[in-house]
């Protein structure tokens, strides 16, 4: 895919869950566009792999092992940041899928604490780390299409991702006067290592439900994140951008 040409020199970006999948693509495209990027991720293995793959951008890259659901860990990660922040991408997320009848309180707590409380922890801690003089501060939260229409086996995930949309709209109202825009992206079915591991027939069935008749690529989400991060997107606030090939119409 030919990516849109963005210029993020002199900007610094934090990407949670930035060491793999969608977050890794977001981090790579920001680095290629000249940004300084801090990748926050739980997995040391994924962080090491990302550092190797992004070796050419070493001088622009900062990585930190952090659990976004743990406030002490988030505070430590924030203290290690070498740069003031211009853009925060809240992308870290997990699934623990089961039908509601089979879902355990542990499944509920795990997903809510990473996918919902994690955003609260990271955003609250980083608010004072944003570049105070910038009129173009950006927070982009990764939700999901399932937040808009529910999904079998995902009570915990859907509740968290719908909560992310609620937080986005509230922060957009509260922080707008302070030079922030806050927006959410609702990805549809995106091809990541996670979906690649699914049986081919299941992937084909998923693609068949999409009006564009294909799964999304990580670049599709990364390009949307980058657009919302530009100075030119300064009047887009508190919105949810579906990037799903028209899945939810
Ligand atoms: N893949 C899809 O089709 C799809 C669709 C809609 C929404 N999303 C959302 O996009 C985001 C990225 O998904 P992905 O498919 O790239 O997933 P992924 O599993 O490939 O990547 C998620 C990253 O988050 C990190 N992470 C997990 N828990 C963490 C924690 N507690 N603290 C810090 N980092 C943590 C993981 O180590 C991993 O590197 C998630 O929020 C997901 O819910 C994905």
3D structure, described in words:
The protein is α/β, with parallel strands linked by helices. The chain contains 10 helices and 7 strands. It has a 7-stranded parallel β-sheet, sandwiched between helices. The protein binds nicotinamide-adenine-dinucleotide (NAD). The site of nicotinamide-adenine-dinucleotide has 30 residues, from helix 1 and helix 8.
Radius of gyration: 17 Å
Distance between the amino and carboxyl termini: 25 Å
**What's the name of the CATH homologous superfamily?**
NAD(P)-binding Rossmann-like Domain
Helix content: 40-55%
Q: What structural class should be given to the helix and strand makeup? A: alpha/beta
Q: Low-confidence runs (pLDDT<50, min 5 residues)?
A: none
The CATH class is identified as Alpha Beta
Strand content bin: 15-25%
CATH topology tier name: Rossmann fold
**What ligands does this structure carry?**
nicotinamide-adenine-dinucleotide
Helix-strand pattern: EHEHEHEHHEHHEHHHE
Q: Note the overall shape.
A: globular
